[in-house]
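Reproducibility note. Readers wishing to regenerate the assembly model reported in the main text can use the exact inputs given here. Chain order matters: entities are listed in the order in which they were concatenated for prediction.
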Amino acid sequence: MNFAATLGLALPIGIGLAAIGSGFGLGLMGRGAMEAMGRQPEVLPKIQVAMIIGFGFIEALTIYAFVTMFFLQGKIG
Amino acid sequence: MRPAGNGPDLMERSIRASFWMALALAAALLPARPAAALSLAAGELIMAANFLFLARLVKVFTERARGVRELPLLGWAAAKTAFVYGGAFALTRWPSLEYLPLLLGLSMPLLAMLLKSIMLALRTGPSPFPRRATQTAGALGPSAKLAAVLLLSGVAALAAPALARAGGEEAGGEHAAGVQHLPNWVVILNDYFPNNPVVHWMHQNEVLVFAWVAGIVFFLYSWFAMRGARRSVVPGPLQNSLEWMVESMESVTGGMLGRHNERYFPYIMAIFFYILTMNLLGIVPGFKSSTDTLDVTLALALITFLYVQWSGIRNLGPLGYIDHMAGSPRDIIGFAMLPIMIPVHLLGELAKPVSLSCRLFGNIFGEDTLVVVFVSATALCLKTSLLVLGAPPLMGITALFMLLQTLTSIVQALIFALLTSVYFYMMLPHEEHTPEGAEHAHAH
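Running the prediction on these inputs yields the following structure tokens for the assembly.
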């Protein structure tokens, strides 16, 4: 197994793993935010802002994998 | 407000206007590239027929409730399918068909409708200018019409050599490497004027050009929006939209930054609007979002990073800044932890610009790539001509992804701005800026 084949196999799997992790994180975060919003609709804007910021942080992890994929994509040849 | 109804009237008028636009363009193209002119006219014809059939179908469909038979509905649907899709298929069988003019012709009624809707939204009426122009021409009599025809043919004569050369260029440069970006107007300009140094420079520095375009677009938007504020007390639609965005962002960042908000809000808002405009430019056909290169996003993130550090030094003092970086040690355990805390804080600070820039770049680049993939799939369907029936659903999917792209553009600009304010909040002294909140908590 040469370098290019290893890379070609590993990159999609890596992105998938990152996406699974981010998905779990987003799900937990969304669930918490939804429950809080349902319980206290009057603080909805504050929760929404915090939720969006948190989404940004969580989503960044998948994006890192994505960017890594693009940087290494050229080496697959 | 406006006495004339805008619904069906608008559509009929825009189709009529698109006919004139297509006719003028085809006339300009005819001397140099007759095949292109014919393709354009055919595309316009097919799309206009599509809209007319659709209008008829909707009319029959809505009248059906009042007891009209279903036969006309099926008949019109069959006629539409036969004419529009059959016409498209027949076109693809024509060997000297040119695809760029065909697509231009196909999008002409949509373009006219878009322009007219924008005019309506800006309250300038469906089409005051062409109407006034034709009225003037009618009053001036046949001499004005003759002048218009002469002007048109003059333009055609001027444009013909350039267009002919461009046609040759296109045929030569067909087999480029893998398509990475959709062509924008700078690329098209570069195709038409390959030896012009200014155009060449613009082609080399596309990202810069489109960043400037974004700045100019937002400048014009805010200028037009606030121009009315000096004249009348009642805000117009543009002013309302701008004020809504600014006020809602101000309430969010004000909740975080407190009394520092006045100093840092202009920066946060400027960066928000700049990124938002750059992101949204990517959706407009013929434009490109500058934020899909790491250079631009890294520059923005570095500016933010340096400004945050500077504001920390300024507000905490040099010693206070070092203390903040060391995790504010107050007891013996804190001082013992110093060798661990300082690298951790430094790394955390350095990760901020990296994460800011990579997040923005990755999201916008990913969305753009998605749209490029679907657009090239649609183009492939049109080009292979066997799968021409697959083109309309693919176009629909592309439009859906463009909706998603709009959402991502707004959310990413929002996240960048909110994270900037969070970083300011983490850097500024914490104790002083929530006295109201503390009093509030005590009162309860």
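We highlight two features of this model. Chain A touches chain B at residues 45-46, 49, 52-53, 55-57, 59-60, 63-64, 66-67, 70 (CB under 8 Å). The helical segments of chain A are 3-39, 44-73.
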